[in-house]
């Protein structure tokens, strides 16, 4: 049948009967033994028989719209698997396999396009690059002769509109546009589902719908609020419920019969096309196809008006802490790092907090299981600090121990309690610490975490969802000057500042010339810099720090200076050297970051008193 006639038939079928689409490609492949995190698109080359089998299983179940294995067939995604040079081959094979599976049966091949997902730890893709990636994928899909382009699982409306624009520019006429909406009816980019559908139709989408985010009931709930006019075409690909992780596998609870029982409810909400997404398999499609026999879509439908109850107006969270950056405009600021204890005994820690405050410190910075060594939560320690002092807590937050969900939850909690000063860190690998069997998460790196914090300050989470309030974090970042690749570290710092960091804390410095170098390179950046000092206690301590602690470098002449000293004489020499470094720092900077060695807060107290007296003399 000529293509024009086939496509005219598709329009007729959508208007005259409920058309059934296929189910999930990825989760079905996982159930067939494909390991997670494998490049699904690559299977079109290495295991074409498996991809063909999946399509055939869905076709035999009753699917008429077959989504080809091209959802993430773009150069950016494939580059993570070093497959970007095989993009054309993958697209060609994927469309060919879908066509082969369909054969001469009634049905239509959809070239699928997902958003160009950027991993949380990676930098964003600029608009020009994104445009190029979409254009390349769209061109290849059209060249291979797919019947329609199926944009799916988009959460950002502007991104989807860009894809539709590029497709129209390439001459594509049959465009299906699906968004992944939150259950309250909004995209992560902030638009309501009603607004999104309207703009998508204006942009040339023949059929609009939802997929990828909601199960059956949530999808029905979303569609209730959508008005349908006679010329509108609607679609939905609900998930098979929420996933459950059991014995290393993700399972979905919604049964095939449950899908079949709800087909008529989807028809009542105006659907022309119904398929399945995450967790659905051929048995789900078969149940829907059987229930859809003889069912005709309705032409018009009014939107159901639903009252919405807001939890509260948008608000700025309470500012409990004064800003260290404001204080810097008045006087030099002294920050002391003092780790929380490794045990449940908090007495000595709190004793040290009081002594450090009395010695004149402005802030106490609390590490987040530094060097992957287990300690009392710095969040809890900061609450104790507030209870016994007026020191400003500066909380280190590392990406190692929490996934993206956990990081946001903790940061939102910090925001509600009025904590403001956050040092964003990637974090030392878990295997290097005292629990080597623990795993490192690293959903984000330090730059990604800074972006996340900046988003919370704007009142949105990582998914772009409105938080009904804004945090007021003053975001800090780390800088390692103890490297031969100093210029590279400066460029990395510039990326952190561009992401939203407002102050810098350096690794401890043990070289007078390096202090001047930091000043000369970082002064043009116009950002407050807390230069780190760590007193050396003895020769063994110096050798350990230099050789075994990442980011620390102690010149040989300094280590040699400690070699013949022991006991208290060694400590006195280390403290004196730290004092000399501190004076040099204060001749260039207005901020010092003093790192307390081995919880010896008495040493930090001595240095604070000495440096403050010199500064005020």
UniProtKB/TrEMBL annotation:
Transmembrane segments: none
UniProt KW keywords: FAD, Flavoprotein, Methyltransferase, Oxidoreductase, Transferase
Record's keyword annotation contains Oxidoreductase: yes
Matching InterPro entries: FAD-linked_oxidoreductase-like (IPR029041), HCY_dom (IPR003726), HCY_dom_sf (IPR036589), Mehydrof_redctse-like (IPR003171)
Organism superkingdom: Bacteria
Pathway, per record: One-carbon metabolism; tetrahydrofolate interconversion
GO molecular function terms attached to this record: methylenetetrahydrofolate reductase [NAD(P)H] activity; methyltransferase activity
GO biological process: methionine metabolic process; methylation; tetrahydrofolate interconversion
Gene3D superfamilies in UniProt: 3.20.20.220, Homocysteine-binding-like domain
Domain Hcy-binding: 7-292
Keyword Oxidoreductase recorded: yes
Cofactor(s), by name: FAD
Protein name in the entry: 5,10-methylenetetrahydrofolate reductase
Gene, per the UniProt record: metF
